[in-house]
Known about the structure:
Blueprint: E1 2-8, H1 16-19, H2 27-42, E2 47-54, E3 58-60, E4 65-67, E5 76-78, H3 102-114, E6 121-127, H4 132-143, E7 149-154, H5 173-186, H6 189-193, H7 197-202, H8 208-217, E8 226-232, E9 239-244
Parallel strand pairs: 1-7, 2-6, 2-7
Antiparallel strand pairs: 1-9, 3-6, 4-5, 8-9
Organism: Streptomyces lusitanus
Protein name: Class III extradiol dioxygenase subunit B-like domain-containing protein
Amino acid sequence: MLVAAAACPCPPLLVPEVAAGAAPELDAARAACTDALGVLAAARPDLLVVVGPDAGTRDHPAGTRGSFRGFGVDLDVRLGDGDGGDDGGAGGDGVAGGELPYGLAVGAWLLGRTGWAGAPVEGRGVGETLAPDACLAEGRRLAGRADRVALLVMGDGSACRTLKAPGYLDERAAPFDAEIARALGTADTAALRALDAGLARELRVSGRAPWQVLAGAAEGNTGLSGALLHDDAPYGVGYMVATWS
Length: 245
């Protein structure tokens, strides 16, 4: 069952080498992510699954590699220990794992930065178009993988928070993100289940599907309480950090 979860943003800019001169602008978010991972470690899970946005719904086995070379940085990461699934690591829908997508690569970087050694680590990429019911089913499946499962859930809020945001300004973005922050901060699974997938897509929210996976994983544990550690939109994109334990 799910014993703990951390929700973290997944912009490559979270990695100082990628952000370069702008790195200090996300220092608070990095510190909150470090604190969130501490909550996961304190829960002493048997398995940690990193869940994040992906091109399709697929597994990324322990040891899968990722890279930030596409962002002009000679930096590679590895998701836990393992061989990375030399056979391709096909997921539940038959899609091979391959290299880590950027969201899971950021998660792997966070784990490496904090020296994670608390439990085996695996990754699960979630497609942006995965329907809410399918996300909930994914979460229930992941929660049943071990007696004590923890999730590191990577995802951003709306990219339409300001005029200079990647998706320009949309007046619906701030209230949408505010409800997500409230739900993450209070472990409100019903609110996460109710997120509108179509509106999330219009507002360029990368975290909708991963957060609904979290809601599904938490269904068997009504004793989880939430804490919101960070909520900001420095580049017109919602970055939230929260823990459930």
